[in-house]
Write a structure and sequence with these properties.
Layout (H helix, E strand, L loop, with lengths): L3 H31 L15 H25 L10 H32 L4 H30 L5 H38 L7 H29 L4 H35 L3 H6 L19 H15 L1
Length: about 300
C-alpha cells in the first residue's frame, strides 16, 4: 500500500519529468513567436502575435508555479496530512492554477474551431456554453474551498468542491472531443486534395489536431474517471499531473507544427510576405463542399495560406 507521502512524491516526480518536456516545447514556441520563419532575426513588434505570446507566457508561469507548489508539499510531508491552513491554501492555489490553465487551452481550441468554420457562432455554441460552465465551476471551487477553511464545521463545502471538479473535467473532456473532431472534420476534405507523398499545411494540421487532440482528450477522460473513483490518492494525483502537463504540451506542439508547415507552405509558393501583411480573414476561403473553387492554382494556395495564419 502506497502512503500519502509516497504517492505525492511519485506524482510530483512524473510532473517534473513532463515539465521538462513542456519546457522543450515552450522554447520552440517562443522561437516561432519572436523570430522570423527563415532564421534567427527578431520579428518587428507589429509582426508578433501578441495574443499567442501572452497566452504562451501565462501558461509557462502557471506551469512553473504549479510544479513549485507540488515540490513545496513534497518536501514538507506535514502538509500532505491533516487540514492545516497552509495546506488548504496551497491546494486552493494549485487547483485555481490548473483550472485556469485548462480554461486558456480550451479557449484557444474554441477560437481555432471558430475561425475554421468561417466564424460561425452556431458551430461553437455548445463548446462556448461548456466553457462558461467551467469558468463558473472554477469560481465556485475557489469559493467553496475557501469557505471550508474558514468554517471547518461545515463539511458539505468539501463535497461541493469535489462535485465542481467533476463537472469541470466533464466539460473539459467534451470541449476537447468536440473541438478536435470539428476542426478535423472541416479540413479533412482539403487534406485529401493534397499530394499524399508531399503533404502540405492542411494535411499536417489535420493530423496534428487529430493526434494531439485525441491524446489530450484521453488524459482528460482518465482524470475524470479517476476523480469519480477516488478524490485523493496515487491514481487521482497521477491523472491530474498528466492532464495538466498535457494541456501545456499539446498547446505548444499544435502551435509549433502549424507554424512550421504554414511557413513552409508560404515559402514554397513565394507568398510568405503577402500572407503576413494580410488582415485576418481578408480573403474568402472556399468551403469544403465545393473545393477546389473556380480559381487559379495560386489563388488556392493563397486561401490555404490565410487559413494557416488564422489557425495560429
Amino acid at each position: 500500500m502506497v502512503s500519502t507521502n509516497q504517492a505525492w512524491i511519485i506524482a510530483t516526480s512524473v510532473q517534473a519529468i513532463l515539465y521538462g518536456l513542456y519546457l522543450a516545447t515552450f522554447g520552440h514556441s517562443v522561437r516561432w513567436l519572436l523570430y522570423d520563419d527563415d532564421g534567427w532575426k527578431l520579428r518587428r513588434p507589429e509582426k508578433i502575435n501578441s495574443l499567442m505570446l501572452s497566452l504562451t507566457m501565462t501558461i509557462f508561469i502557471f506551469s512553473t508555479l504549479d510544479l513549485g507548489i507540488s515540490l513545496r508539499m513534497a518536501f514538507s510531508p506535514h502538509l500532505l496530512v491533516g487540514e492545516s491552513s497552509e495546506r488548504s491554501s496551497l491546494v486552493i492555489v494549485n487547483n485555481a492554477i490548473e483550472n485556469f490553465t485548462i480554461i486558456i487551452t480550451d479557449a484557444i481550441l474554441i477560437l481555432r474551431c471558430w475561425v475554421v468554420y468561417d466564424k460561425s457562432w452556431r458551430v461553437v455554441g455548445l463548446p462556448v456554453f461548456l466553457f462558461f460552465i467551467n469558468i463558473a465551476c472554477t469560481i465556485l471551487l475557489i469559493y467553496w474551498f475557501t469557505m471550508s477553511i474558514l468554517d471547518t464545521s461545515r463539511t458539505q463545502f468539501k463535497s461541493l468542491s469535489n462535485t465542481a471538479l467533476v463537472v469541470f473535467f466533464s466539460c473539459n473532456f467534451a470541449i476537447n472531443i468536440y473541438g478536435a473532431c470539428a476542426v478535423v472534420y472541416r479540413i479533412w476534405p482539403l487534406a485529401k486534395k493534397e499530394d499524399g507523398h508531399n503533404p502540405g499545411f492542411v494535411s499536417i494540421a489535420c493530423h496534428t489536431f487529430a493526434g494531439f487532440g485525441i491524446l489530450y482528450a484521453s488524459t482528460s477522460l482518465l482524470l475524470l474517471i479517476s476523480r469519480l473513483i477516488s478524490q485523493d490518492g496515487l491514481l487521482a494525483w497521477l491523472a491530474d499531473v498528466i492532464n495538466f502537463s498535457m494541456a501545456g504540451i499539446a498547446f505548444n506542439i499544435i502551435f509549433i507544427r502549424v507554424s512550421q508547415h504554414g511557413s513552409r507552405q508560404h515559402n514554397s509558393q513565394s507568398i510568405s510576405t503577402t500572407m503576413h501583411e494580410l488582415p485576418l480573414g481578408s480573403l474568402h476561403r472556399a468551403s469544403t463542399e465545393d473545393w477546389p473553387p473556380k480559381c487559379t492554382g495560386a489563388e488556392k494556395r493563397v486561401q490555404i495560406g490565410v487559413l494557416a495564419d488564422e489557425m495560429l
